[in-house]
Design goal:
- This protein has 328 residues and is α/β, with parallel strands linked by helices.
- It has 2 domains: 2-172 and 225-250, Rossmann fold; 191-222 and 254-321, Alpha-Beta Complex (UDP-galactose 4-epimerase, domain 1), CATH 3.90.25.10.
- Helix content is 37%, strand content 18%.
- It is built from 10 helices and 14 strands.
- It has helices at residues 11-22, 55-62, 79-84, 86-106, 141-160, 191-199, 227-238, 258-269, 293-299, 308-321; strands spanning 2-6, 26-31, 46-49, 69-72, 111-117, 163-169, 171-173, 206-209, 221-222, 224-226, 246-250, 256-257, 275-278, 287-288.
- It has a 7-stranded parallel β-sheet, sandwiched between helices. It has a 3-stranded mixed β-sheet with strand order 12-9-14.
- Helix 4 (86-106) packs parallel to helix 5 (141-160).
- It starts with a strand and ends in a 7-residue tail after the last helix.
- The relative contact order is 0.15.
């Protein structure tokens, strides 16, 4: 099969590219490199540096089909930044996706997999796993932008027959077990790489945002999904949308608190993690854990790296091997 991956130079997108290549598919990557890295795109993969806001340039790439599907990852993704600059987030994420979906329709693309988010469920607190049927109540403009795109895909299916898989994943983490790709954000905001860097002495004391949540130790609880398991779910989802659109939550189904992540990094690295308490971040719910029953039942998917220690281990190994990330 032949697939186009937007945002394929980013963290999740680059791991999905590897999963598609490992499955024997032909992959083309489109990315504007605003947050991704050219070095994250494997050798031999055709790469186009294009911004999805550039309708003509995007259309020219999609026009190089035929495609068996498009996988869309290119987006801004920081909850805190979206709270500080909501209109920018709403505009960027929505318009880039709207352009892509319209172009896919114009070029007769039949299938699209969309990188959605658990931030759709950021409203009133829930203390149990979240199914796809849970009320959508975004707690941030970032989450709202993703839901707006889901609605675009709904109408693209209803009117034009563009089938979609909306994958609402929780906290992507870890790195390719073979060391081919990893996590490198500038600035880094994700807890596991921040904690790894603190353990390795690469940054000052880690800040844990909020220690007074109604959880077992007062810190936020999140469902960490290994990025390789997440990539596997994308490949499997492609097989589900030949005749119908689907929506899946993707996570391990168990949550780890911020403090438990810190303790895992200490166990795996054998080093103490310096840390200090900080105020809550606006838009952060106390508890986000996925119910992935629908994905498992439909595709047979199951996480291979389910424990927090296995996730941390791959993140730590990649960071040790690539202390400067993709910038060697």
């Amino acid at each position: 099969m032949r697939y186009l991956v937007t945002g394929g130079a980013g963290f999740v997108g680059s791991h999905v590219v590897l999963a598609l290549l490992d499955a024997g598919h032909d992959v083309v990557v489109l990315d504007n490199l605003s947050t991704g890295y050219r070095k994250a795109v494997p050798a031999g993969v055709t790469f186009h540096k294009v911004d999805l806001l550039d309708y003509a340039a995007t259309s020219a790439v999609v026009g190089q089909g035929a495609w068996d599907g498009v996988l869309h990852f290119a987006a801004l993704s920081l909850v805190g930044d979206s709270m500080r600059d909501p209109f920018y987030y709403l505009r960027q994420n929505y318009l880039t996706a709207l352009n892509l979906v319209q172009i896919c329709v114009e070029h007769s693309v039949k299938k699209i997999v969309f990188s959605s988010t658990a931030a759709l469920f950021g409203g009133p607190e829930r203390l149990g796993p979240i199914p796809e049927t849970a009320p959508v109540q975004p707690g941030s403009p970032y989450g709202e932008s993703k839901f707006m795109i889901e609605r675009v895909l709904n109408w693209a299916d209803a009117i034009y027959g563009l089938r979609s898989a909306c994958l609402r994943y929780f906290n992507a983490a870890g790195a390719d077990p073979q060391g081919r790709a990893g996590e490198d954000h500038r600035p880094e905001t994700h807890l596991i790489p921040l904690t790894v860097d603190a353990a390795l002495g690469r940054r000052s004391a880690l800040k844990l945002f909020g220690t007074d949540y109604p959880t077992r130790d007062g810190s936020c609880i999140r469902d960490y999904i290994h990025v390789t398991d997440l990539a596997d779910a994308h490949v499997r989802a492609l097989g589900q949308i030949d005749h119908r659109s689907v929506t899946y939550n993707i996570g391990n189904g168990q949550g780890y608190s911020n403090l438990e992540v810190l303790q895992s990094v200490e166990r795996v690295s054998g080093r103490k993690v310096p840390w200090e308490a900080a105020p809550r971040r606006e838009g952060d719910p106390a508890f986000l854990v996925a119910d992935s029953t629908a994905l498992k039942n439909d595709t047979g998917w199951a996480p291979r790296f389910g424990s927090i220690d296995s996730i941390v281990e791959t993140a730590l190994l990649w960071r040790k091997k690539n202390p400067n990330g993709y910038e060697v």
